[in-house]
Model the fold of this input.
Amino acid sequence: MVSTLAADRPAPAQPKAASGNRTAWIDMSRGMAEVSVVTFHILQAMTNAGLTPKGLFDFWTPVGDMIRMPLMMFVAGLFVEHSLRKGPVAYFKGKTERIIWPYLVWAHVYSIYWYVKPSSFDHRTLNEVLLTTVAPGSHLWFLESLFVYYIVVYFLLKRGIWLTLGVALAVALTTPLLGMEELKRIPYLFLFFAMGIGFNRILKARGFPFGPWIGAALVALAIALPVLITDAFGYSKYYPIAIPASIIGVGACLAISRALVHIPVVNRLMVLFGTFSLEIYCAHVVFSSLTRQILVGVFHWHAFWPIFLVCTTAGLFMPIALALALRRFGLDLVFEWPKHLFQREPAVEAQNF
Done:
């Protein structure tokens, strides 16, 4: 989203029966994206704290940077036309309730926290806090951009999918003209959001377009290409030169997800993470950061892998536990529009991202 992340989808099926079921492997793709986001933020924080082995962050960052957010936008795009069939009122109402509301809540949570308790890496001025809605200064920018994409494609799709894809590619090629990374990512990621819409049409027309051997090749290329591109061209995140690597990386993740359908336990975990993608995306930083501070400050842990694994577990599972606990007592307004305090939507709609 973020997220990780689709706005509407059919009722989720059980992974054990999902070898040919789109929903399960798509949920797993979304789950993989969430795992990537969580581990990246933990790795980033541990690197800032001097706890990461030398070279590890620099090697894996290019790979994740060229795949993670393109995958999240691609999966979000898969269900756009499903949402549009409900009509414009339901379409925009649903996106506002499921995306804008948690964006406003959690963007301000992080912004106010960093204002009250600043650090050398995360800090906000009072003016920045007041501007949080338009400039969140946190990973919640994903939800802000996602909502903008939903608005743009609503109008573009009236002219057809090819125009939508053409516009998306054209604007993605403009990123070298933009100064800040915060600006570059908006047109770059829109391409993958639009590609998700187009890929969904392929799925409907003739099913999944490639088999396991092509998938295996894509996985190998997805690891090698980002490293090679970075070595040859330098920092290339959100630049046109990275588009092929991002496309291959998305395809590789889809292939892995389809393979994971057949692996017990792992498939259920990935579906779980995909189902709660919004909750994980919004809240994982709180829980993983708190866990790291306790492990280092209270228990005096300094070994990288134990801290990394415990923080990852906390970042993935504790947001789910929080969401379930809040829903149990009808207090889930931090993730859902407040109407859920009084009237619950069907479970499928409530969990869509």
